[in-house]
Amino acid sequence: MRYCINCCIHLLPNDLHRQCFRCRGPNHNNQKCPVCKGENKTPLYTDSKQMKLLAVLEVRTDHSESWNGFFCLRKGKLCSLIFGLIIMTLVMASYILTGAKHGLLLIPSPFHYGAFTSNPSLMDNESLSDMKDHYQPSKMNISYVKDYPSIKLIIDTITSKIEFITRQRPDLEELRKQEPHMFSVIPNKFLPNSKNPCWYEEYRGNTTTDPYATNSYALYSKRFRTIFDYLRKVFWNHLYHYKDKHYRLRCLPHFYIIGQPKCGTTDLYDRLRLHPDVRFSAIKEPHWWTRKRFGIIRLRDGFHDRYPVEDYLDLFDLAAHQIQGVLQSESAKERGKTNNIIIGEASASTMWDNNAWIFFYDNSTEGEPPFLIQDFIHAFQPKAKLIIMLRDPVERLYSDYLYFASANKSVEDFHEKVAESLQLFENCMLDYPLRACVYNNTLNNAMPVRLQVGLYVVYLLDWLTVFDKDQILVLRLEDHASNVKYTMHMVFQFLDLGPLSEKQEALITKSPASNTRRPEDRSLGPMLPTTKAILRDFYRPFNTKLAQVLFDDAFLWKRT
To answer: Which domain of life does the protein's organism represent (predicted)?
Structure first.
């Protein structure tokens, strides 16, 4: 049997060359065909021991005539095709890796929002999952952000829409209509001989009654059951007896550490509670004003029963027992001694988290909440003191991401989430005013990272509509980290706390920092330079306004 090397195809002995596409045609002449000429043919004998291996590899067998032409391609052309594909693959891989290195990965744009609703009746017939579906992204509205200039256009659009408009403060009667039970429990006057706001409340239970049997904090959290077990044991020892009636001392905090998360509030809390005149709630962050009073434990889990104000007040019973001990001491009775112990509460959500309003309050204007947390706190405690710890919002956001992201954390993933969140925020700002977007629950839950928490000035201006400026102390984490002693002295002075011994001061100021970044998160390193530049541009107008309000250019965070 003979084979034609040039045709690269298996040929039967009786029709040599007829299968070759080069030899087809009615006018074919074997002598004139360059392929079929004898000098161009390289006959191989299959029964010869001298047959070369490479020649055998050139043999192709195909029983389908439709593919014969394809297999007649020369080896050089096939190699060229393969080589071209390899080059193309290498070029694409180089592009993708280069984009990842510079933080310019392809990023899908978010969706346009549906209309915000301020009508609670619409939500009564929908579950939280239904509401979430109502605001799901439009999959047909996906684009990709490839580079810094593209995202910069989004930021420019947001900046052009920023307006800091003073909100209208609701009157007291409107607040009473919203929370009648709360106003029935908390009095409008407190004990005159106590620096901390406290009052006596009649207790109608008996010795067999468990005063904390229905406390939601004890029921829903196993961590706090030990605390309440202790409170049950000592409860009856701290009742005040007067004219055959039992009274318990109730207290609210004298001061609140209201924010912001990942800004050093835990470290401030840990140091401040070492002061002999300071007590805190039994739970560091009750989140009662912002979440628990609405029945929110985790918004994605839906609503639980609302935590009544009595459950919140129970958290201050340990401190109330100590204050009562001071008030009932002999020296206090004889000399009219005033209690100097003060109570603090450190929920870092208090300053910014008003996400629940849309489910409970109507009569909103342009999607803005008609009532905020500070309205109710001020209604009960017009003299309350507020402490705010802030940090560079760019670094705060990255720290927030590292702390709360559960898996697949990377600087590239952070970059993508920032870009997507910016586009979501832009979509809202195109249709609604700034405050409506900042306080919008649906938007805040949709954003992959919490951009809105770093808009400090928006929240601060709203707190200043109800509280005087001298009732609010604003600190920077950067200053606190570099000089703990100085910032703690500022806090002590702000709260009118008594002097400390050198030993007490050293204990407070020289303790190691609390709640620092986890080792596994440190290994990720800093965010991408492109991401940082994007966030600097986004937060710049808000930082500028904050520095103007506080008369302090340090809040521009130019050096961080």
So the answer is: Eukaryota
Structure tokens at 376: 């109710």
The tokens of 438 are what? Answer: 């900042």
What is the gyration radius of the CA atoms in the chain, in angstroms?
A: 37
Residue type, 482: S
DSSP secondary structure letter of residue 223: G
State the DSSP code for 9: B
At which residue do the structure tokens 């500028």 appear?
544
Tokens of 112: 């346009």
Residue 483 reports pLDDT greater than 60: yes
CA separation for the pair 485, 489 (Å, rounded): 6
Contact 224, 217 (CB under 8 A): yes
Q: What is the pLDDT of residue 353?
A: 94
Per this entry, what is the length of the chain? Answer: 560
Please, which contacts does 219-223 make with residues 24 or more away whose CB atoms are closer than 8 Å?
220/297, 220/304
**What token pair was written down for 48?**
């010869």
Of the listed ranges 6-15, 213-222, 427-436, the least confidently predicted one is: 6-15
pLDDT at 161 over 80: yes
Where b means 16+ CB within 10 Å and e means fewer, 47-78 reads: eeeeeeeeeeebeeeeeeeeebeebbeeeeee
For residues 34 and 36, what is the distance between their CA atoms, to the nearest angstrom?
6
Return the DSSP state at 294.
Answer: G
Tell me if 191 sits within 8 A of 201, measured CB to CB: no
CA 479 to mean position of chain CA atoms = 24
Question: How would DSSP label each residue in 475-515?
Answer: EEHHHHHH-HHHHHHHHHHHTTPPP--HHHHHHHHSSPPSS
Q: What's domain 172-556's architecture?
A: 3-Layer(aba) Sandwich (3.40)
> First CA to last CA across the chain, in angstroms?
83
Q: Are 532 and 394 in contact (CB under 8 A)?
A: yes
Where is pLDDT greater, at 83 or 378?
A: 378
CA 340-346-352 angle, 5° bins: 130
pLDDT at 535: 97
- Residue from 96, 97, 138 nearest 114 by CA: 138
The predicted model gives 73-86 an average pLDDT of 68
Structural domain boundaries in the chain: 172-556
Q: In this structure, are residues 361 and 448 in contact, taking their beta carbons and an 8 Å threshold?
A: no
| Cβ pair 353, 290 in contact under 8 A | yes
Going by their DSSP bridges, the two strands 255-259 and 385-390 should be labelled as: parallel
Longest dimension (CA), the chain: 134
How far apart, in whole angstroms, are the C-alpha atoms of residue 36 and residue 13? Answer: 15
DSSP 320: H
Beta bridge partners of 194: 339
Q: Which two tokens stand for residue 320?
A: 């109330």
- Say what the pLDDT of residue 334 is: 62
